[in-house]
Amino acid sequence: MTLYNRSPRKERTVFRKVLIANRGEIACRVIRSCRRLGIATVAVYSDADANAQHVLQADEAVYIGGSRPAESYLRGDVILAAAQQVGAEAIHPGYGFLSENADFADAVERAGLVFIGPNAASMRKMGSKAGAKNLMQEHTVPVVPGYTGEDQDAALLHREADRIGYPLMIKAAHGGGGKGMRIVRASSEFATNLESCQREAKNAFGRERVLLERYIETPRHIEIQIFGDSHGDVIHLNERECSAQRRYQKVIEESPSPFLTPELRAQMGSAAVAAGKAIDYCNAGTVEFIVGPRGDFYFMEINTRLQVEHPVTELVTGLDLVEWQLRIAAGERLPLLQQQITTRGHAIEVRLYAEDPEQGFLPGSGRITQLNLPKTDAHVRIDGGVIEGDTVSIFYDPMIAKLIVHDVDRPAALRRLARALEACDVLGPKSNIDFLEQLIRHPSVVDATIDTGYLDRHLDEVLATPTELPESAMIAVACAELLAEEAAAISAAHADADSFSPWGRADAWRLGHAGKRVVRFEWRGLRFVLFAHGSNGRYALDIGGRHVEVEHALHDGEWLNARMPGTALRVRVRRSGDDWLAFVAGRRYRLHPSSPFAFETAAAHGAEAVKSPMPGRIIAVKVALDAAVEANQELVIMEAMKMEITLRAPHAGRVVDLRATAGEFVEADVLLAKVEAA
Fold first, then answer.
1. Catalytic residue from among 182, 220, 305, 381
2. Is there a catalytic annotation at residue 110?
3. Are the C-beta atoms of 232 and 307 separated by less than 8 Å?
């Protein structure tokens, strides 16, 4: 329960009506807190989001423009006009889009509305990573050595990089979210990485200025949640560790950090509060630190907004951070003093994305035809913005939901997270569920030794796929399929059939011989055929050259239980569309049933064609028609779903067809180039 005992407050709703200048999961999250507090909510939506969940859940909704963010969610003037039109008193920006746009915050205040976040002055101090580092140094907050100057001459930057030493990090001076970042390990690699980083920064944030800083090897990423009020008070709500990252994108977030000692936690908390006071911070913010193996920590940045991973802090503190945001924005004091902040247990968050880990985590899109998520309770929380039947749009972040668990300690929380992930399933676009299941069982996560670069160095370990299908999975799926066939046959039988006649039975009974049934399925391109005799949960199975007797097979839709000579079989098996999912030894296996008489077509080959993997915009064409290219050479660079995708030559040869043009928008599977083999 949230406690408010600082001082008496007016017995009224903090705001009557709030407009949420965002979409998806965070908009739904803000709506929940507002509804509990009796605050009316207004959603805004684009063409792509006309039937989105945040629109359906809000009390009102206002259309603001086209599907692309620049045509809708980034149009501050249109959003502000919508707020005035409906009589909203305040605007909650969520995260992303306009949440850290100081000009928008100023415009909201000038219009007489309340911006639920820090003031524009604080944002501007943190809007430049270079200026932020200089400011933190002045307030004795430790920072990483580097170059933060305004002179962006490429030759000067190269000299500064050589002075700082390698490895070093090139970072976009404006923005965040892992965009515009490159690690450079040698002077010879600097120029190419600088060009790529500047281009990505300009596309993402409109500015190509970068800063340089020493790269800390095997670091931890630990952030401190802070809150300030308009009365000059700043406190922290302890830390979250986000060291499990891939390409600077957080994959696992947890609290408390298993790395911090009480002494280090206190030091970092004090530094975070000092950072907040240095910029007169008000409302929710996150001070991010990079922490070396010996506990040396350095300021990275302050995110002047609510973070995606704020639920882990909520679960360990029992506080509603959105409610705190609303109350502080309304002028109230911080609800609690620093010494009143307590934590209990351990919380972990992972994000379910529509993406394909086996294809370089390529973002996905399309209609979600089936979405299974675990039941929520005191230990499991789901923050989502889509439901079954919704579409993951090509225009926005492909997150499906955040899965957050809480338990008494870290091992218990990891076990609970594993069970919760087993209950998840997505059909339609591909998802990262299997990747998350393997990651949370990886020794680097279980032992809490993972650093921010571990996944980029050892991703193949986590993505390693099994080469053999466990026999227990085959037997369990075969029994489940046989039982399902029998149940379907019985339900399809005529209701007036003679139950005493052998001709009215549907259990594979045969006169004079044992009926043979064939179960065929595919797994990762491999085909398996099992022969079965028997019915009603009692089967003799022939698997290759092995004969297996199964008795008392029962399937309740989730678990397959059976007896075999000398052992009992219990495997989680459930339907996933037309497929079966079997869970064995912490790994999921997807088996696709097929007819034993299915016609097999030859696979089509198009190795020379380079096609767009998804809808997106061409931002650079790196070759010309008839040019000679080497294998893996850059051909075309696309921007899609908030990321840069490089398409490369499939082999050495000559470009015989080139259809890509910089600036154009292309749909998925469009031919962009052809490379004729040398």
1. 305
2. no
3. no
